[in-house]
Amino acid sequence: MNVEKYTFDAVIVGAGGAGLRAALQLAEAGLRTAVLTKVFPTRSHTVAAQGGVAASLGNSTPDHWHWHMYDTVKGSDWLGDQDAIEFMCRKANEVVIELEHYGMPFDRTDEGKIYQRPFGGHSMNYGEAPVMRSCAAADRTGHAMLHALYQRNVRAHTQFFVEWMALDLIRDQDGDVLGVTAMEMETGKVAIFHAKATIFATGGAGRIYYSSTNAFINTGDGLGMAARAGIPLEDMEFWQFHPTGVAGAGVLITEGVRGEGGILRNCNGERFMERYAPNLKDLASRDVVSRAMVTEINEGRGCGPNKDYVLLDITHLPPETIMKRLPGIREIAIQFAGVDPINEPIPVVPTVHYQMGGIPTNYKGQVVVPKGDDPEVPVVGFYAAGECACASVHGANRLGTNSLLDLLVFGKASGETVIEDIQSGNLRLKPLPKDAADLSLARINRLNTATSGEPVADVLLDMQRTMQKHAGVFRFANLLKEGVERILQVEERVKHTFINDKSMVWNTARIEALELENMIEVAKATMVSAEARKESRGAHVRDDCPDTPEFPNGRNDKEWLKHTLWYREGNRLTYKPVHLKPLHPDTQPIALAKRTY
Ligand SMILES: Cc1cc2nc3c(=O)[nH]c(=O)nc-3n(C[C@H](O)[C@H](O)[C@H](O)COP(=O)(O)OP(=O)(O)OC[C@H]3O[C@@H](n4cnc5c(N)ncnc54)[C@H](O)[C@@H]3O)c2cc1C
Fold first, then answer.
1. Which pLDDT score is estimated for 282?
2. Where is the FAD-dependent oxidoreductase 2 FAD-binding domain (predicted)?
């Protein structure tokens, strides 16, 4: 097959919030910047974000970035890297105001300031009371954000390659990254994108689960590409289940609904969160609420004929508030649950939502891997931002609205680092290895020449069901062990998938087969890492690691306060330390308040 070559200063894979924010930084600095995306930029999953973006602007309640940092560290169950968390919380106000100046249509308070709503786990004065920190544009914050960023990129002459699917990372014999191979989806043509810097912003992989709030394109391609190129994946055992997916459909009902006063009720009409989290109640962090809901259901207090969901009630809110602040949610409830939330509560269940782990990076957006004694050595030419990256600001559990913030802060930071690295002469266009496109061509060739094998959809479904059953909200030692075996069996089947349609033009069957090859890497990383982590922390809760006086909530800081690194080769695991300064699990938050900057 003929392989064309394009050359750029920087190539960015992904046009969601993270990719567009990075691209803007580079294009405005005059660098030749290409953005590859499987879908039109404004259809990236960021468009679905509803609730808001966190920043301690303090427009309606007092706020401080120290409090935001403390909440994020605590929310991460101490697994977050504190240098990255500090960087994100300190930068939040700057990037949000910048976005406002780019034209983002935020809702307004009566004084004309950016409207902010409360969100789970975000508090005032180190956990004392909920704070209003989530900057929102009704319940369509991601939509507004993505459009503002896209328009700004058009103005900056970013070059978009729309409906191009990146296939593999190109590394040379030094391990440096020189770009990617990609396929034009319309024609099936393969090309090499050769660049000084490559930034991955490919988003999440929620589609490895059966029930997910994620878009169909969220297949973890960046993680698959990184894993195949020998880069480890960090903390993949931690998946966030959002408490309120519409029962049966998975579509998300934003936490902003509870921020506006929504209440979860069991079949007795009881506001059960009062028992599980007396202070924050329905706005406790997502892992706490999800587990409380599953417990209610497991103990027979679920609703409906099968007692398999709970109810989210906003019937006590004035209809005007629902129409003004939550119009999209009302539409979703009517369309997907058949109820008008003005009059009736919405049936909801916990649904997979967000991956806390990803490609290991530092707070500058550089991809870092262990080398010798140093656990974090940058890979020359390789950067990552957004949900595909693990900075790690979310640790074992992400607070709502911190992801949109992560996209802005680390999208911008990765762009700034690339500019610095190019201007300082650290990055240059290295010659491509002769076999640069061989792996991608071999993968495509296998699909094109196979005369028999299993349909992609069958293997995909078994993978998703395995993940849902064996690595769900609650985890069981025996199910995890069996899950590892099962997922390795699914991997064998992925190697023997078969597509009937071999045509070149807009062949979605081929694309789905290639996506499955990425998803299986994420699934293996998740299952193997989860089986190995013998404690409960954040979103990873094991039945054999319960709450005891020695290990409150099942968390074992002595042995497990460390990041997992999973390598594709041999399913090998190693671990690296958490950046634990200035806070320590035993420290009072006052240590942060007293710190001078
Ligand atoms: C329903 C929903 C609601 C949410 N609400 C909120 C919220 O209110 N607040 C909050 O903070 N977070 C929220 N989140 C989380 C947050 O929206 C996501 O984590 C975030 O938008 C991810 O952005 P991203 O830029 O990393 O990736 P995405 O927006 O997912 O974009 C990924 C991009 O990568 C491209 N891509 C992927 N693979 C390839 C490939 N092989 N080749 C080329 N291109 C590729 C895609 O085309 C796309 O452009 C929500 C998530 C969901 C699912």
1. 93
2. 9-404
Longest dimension (CA), the chain: 68
The pLDDT of residue 333? 96
**Cα–Cα distance for residue pair 43/64, rounded to 1 Å:** 34
Q: What is the tally of structural domains in the chain?
A: 3
CB 464 within 8 A of CB 527: no
150 part of a folded domain: yes
Among the atoms of ligand 1, which is closest to the Cα of residue 146? 29
- The answer to whether position 553 is within a domain reads yes
pLDDT tens for 484-519 read 999 999 999 999 999 999 999 999 999 999 999 999
Residue 448 binned pLDDT confidence (cut-offs 50, 70, 90): very high
Answer yes or no: is pLDDT of 252 > 60. Answer: yes
Answer yes or no: do 18 and 74 share one domain.
yes
Q: Is 44 annotated as a binding residue?
A: yes
Active site members: 286
Q: Whose CA is nearest to atom 31 of ligand 1?
A: 16
**Is the domain of 414 the same as that of 453?**
no
Residues 53 and 169 in one domain: yes
The set of residues, in sequence order, having a beta carbon less than 8 Å from that of 208 and lying 6+ positions away, is 219, 220, 463, 464, 467, 519, 522, 523, 526
404 is in an annotated binding site: yes
Asked if 347 contacts 356 with a C-beta cutoff of 8 angstroms, the reply is no
Q: How far is the CA of 16 from the centre of ligand 1 (A)?
A: 6
Mean pLDDT of the chain, nearest integer: 95
Q: Residues 265-294: what's their mean pLDDT?
A: 91
Q: What is the C-alpha to C-alpha distance for residues 465 and 463, in angstroms, rounded to an integer?
A: 6
37 in a known ligand binding site: yes
Atom in ligand 1 nearest the alpha carbon of residue 518: 41
CB 58 within 8 A of CB 34: no
Domain span at 95: 4-239+356-424
| One domain, residues 377 and 325 | no
Which numbered atom of ligand 1 lies nearest the CA of 18? 25
CA of 585 to the centre of ligand 1 (A): 31
Residues 263 and 203 reside in one and the same domain: no
How close is the Cα of 576 to the center of ligand 1, in Å?
27
Q: What angle do CA 522, 208, 505 make, to 5 degrees?
A: 95
Mean pLDDT over 333-360 rounds to 96
Q: Is the pTM of this model over 0.85?
A: yes
What one-character DSSP code corresponds to residue 354?
E
Ligand 1 atom with least separation from CA of 164: 43
Does the annotation flag 52 for ligand binding?
A: yes
Pocket (CB within 6 angstroms of ligand 1): 13-19, 36-39, 44-46, 48-53, 141-142, 164-166, 201-204, 213-214, 217-218, 221, 252, 254, 354, 386-388, 400-404, 407
Do 206 and 146 reside in the same domain of the chain?
yes
Query: Where a domain ends, among 424, 449, 466?
Result: 424
Q: 384: domain CATH number?
A: 3.50.50.60
